[in-house]
Amino acid sequence: VKSWADAFGGELYSIVTKYSGSLLLQKKYKDVEPTLKIEEVDGVELVKKFSEQMESMLRRKVEAVERLVEAAEDADLNHEYNSSLEFDYYNSVLINEKDENDNYVELGDEFILEPNEHFNNLLVNTTYSDIQLPTNVYNKDPDILNGVYMSEALNPIFVDNFERDPTLTWQYFGSSTGFFRLYPGIKWLPDENGVISFDCRNRGWYIQAATSPKDIVIIVDVSGSMKGLRMTIAKHTIITILDTLGENDFVNIIAYNDYVHFIEPCFKGILVQADRDNREHFKQLVDELQAKGVGTVNKALTESFKILREVREDAGQGGLCNQAIMLITDGAVEDYEAVFEKYNWPDRKVRVFTYLIGREVTFAPNVKWIACNNKGYYTQISTLADVQENVMEYLHVLSRPMVINHDHDIIWTEAYMDSALFASQAQSLLLMTTVAMPVFSKKNETRSHGILLGVVGSDVPLRELLKLAPRYKLGVHGYAFLNTNNGYILSHPDLRPLYKEGKKLKPKPNYNSVDLSEVEWEDQDEILRTAMINGETGYLSMDVKVPVDKGKRVLFLTNDYFFTDISGTPFSLGVVLSRGHGEYILLGNTSVEEGLHDLLQPDLSLANEWIYCITDIDPDHRKLSQLEAVIRFLTGEEPDLECDEELVQEVLFDAVVTAPMEAYWTTLALNMSMETEAGVEMAFLGTRAGLMRSALYVGSEKISNSQLIEKMSTVTIYPQDHF
């Protein structure tokens, strides 16, 4: 068996060596070695440079949002509210709709839409924004009309922002009255039931920008009187409150009847981060609550005040900002004044919001008194339909201090997926983050009320950010990744946010709260994770196992991790270089004439996913492939093309060194005898600069793996985020 194996191995080795021409290629690189420069990659410098470029790109996005906020606040200042205002606007659901007489319907005028590559080939109108309203908001409500009329002032700013910074994508204004102004304007389609459920006020970016981080204890009455519909409404109210919380908030839930119980006993006496996993866990437990016994609210209130006090005084815990108690009950009878006196007065550091469940009004004055004497807000919820609007009210109260002081905090959301992009991109590149800022009323007469007009936001696709850390600078097995100050990944080649259900791709439920420790497995304690969350700059090396070929094989490598923060944002950037290949970079010098001659050969291509030249900004350049763009750049045909000169230089060098391969392969193909050497079908090579050459030894109809040829011509060998 051993001699068979040796014979087989020897045979295979000699065939592969002969037909691939690998020895010739090695010799060609050896020949040019004296003229090469070999430089060591400085990871610390690299990560700093990348992070500075990312910071300046993100700063441009912030400036765009700031211009919108300023315009919206000025427009509101100069707008007199008019309750009988008549005004036709572009309603994104009604645009281009006609009635039976072939006239455009009201609010649905002609709105020109054209496909635009920059917006994933959706039909858009880049000169104008349009308005989307959820089904439960009346589109001619005076509040809506006044708000839409006032926010018309944003149109020229949207357009101007887009001209100044062509990498901007969607820009929008979500109003506290419920309308959503989106630029560029699009046609919005209702779901299969004809309902438009999107309400900008429930989106993470809106809620995070409208309020600061908060610590919240929800107290729910589960005494016998809450049975039936009341319990259903109460549960729905809790779930709605949970949905307004995010990673920066802390929460716990207490249910009370004869005694107090934390609905999750493990969280007794503490607050937990309101991340996705904890919120889902709470929702399941809330669903199982049952009403029985007699309600005594005092113990529950005492317990809540104690938790909040502990969090407040023990520095470094909780949201360090707002604190509130949400009391959900159908009435309160006992003497609860003493509790507030002991724990909350005179400073009133904790706001108390009360939700009276049901149609009864007997206890309304008591429940209202609790809220009004603790800087809170009182609402009565008698049907399921009231829940959403009433819960949203608390956000306005919590945002009041920010409004009165005009604190325009810039917020960045964690990564999320834009469903329009599902089909089109590599999985790790679908994600985006939103930069958002609140818009306040500047009118003097209402300034002390703290009126929030809405939130302005813009989307930043993470792939735009990663373009600033180009692949070729990181070497084989190198990559860059981003994470947030909550330890969640924004972008990482191993983040696989989608899964297949039947034929459809769907996002995994927790795709935007995958922790860094789940993809970078540290053997020791979580040094890397801790340092990155704290926004430190540093270096670390680790032995890692890297899966290749979709996890069929594993390589053992030593990787060097370099990391730093991106200032002005809650994000950190990490760059990974592998020891050996990743430590050095080759710099060849080739003249343009020499290189161009070899680039123009037919069987040569460049990795189209890589960015040799920027082709996606100027519409005239969009039709060019990367190879065409590089050639025009070198011949000077398109003087205004911006290209990465270092990468183009490497391509020229690789083109010249690998040129003799074509002749070698051609000679072999001509002299092949089909009987003795059947089975060798094609040869190909790829270089670190993304250059590919290939040669067929048989007619293309004879290739046994026909997909391979298709793959060679597309992107899969050089995806954007890893080799």
UniProtKB/TrEMBL annotation:
> Where would you say this protein principally sits, based on its record?
membrane
Which residue ranges does the record assign to the VWFA domain?
215-398
- Location relative to the cell: Membrane
| Membrane topology listed for this record | Single-pass type I membrane protein
One Pfam family assigned to this protein is: VWA_3
Listed GO molecular functions?
metal ion binding; voltage-gated calcium channel activity
SMART domains associated with the record: VWA (SM00327)
Identify the keywords attached in UniProt to this record, alphabetized. Calcium, Calcium channel, Calcium transport, Disulfide bond, Glycoprotein, Ion channel, Ion transport, Membrane, Metal-binding, Signal, Transmembrane, Transmembrane helix, Transport, Voltage-gated channel
Which InterPro entries does its entry note?
Ca_channel_alpha-2/delta, VWA_N, VWF_A, vWFA_dom_sf
One cellular component (GO) term of this entry: voltage-gated calcium channel complex
Q: Which family, according to UniProt?
A: Belongs to the calcium channel subunit alpha-2/delta family.
Q: What is this protein called?
A: Voltage-dependent calcium channel subunit alpha-2/delta-4
Task: Tell me what organism the protein belongs to.
Answer: Fulmarus glacialis (Northern fulmar)
Write the lineage as a comma-separated list: Eukaryota, Metazoa, Chordata, Craniata, Vertebrata
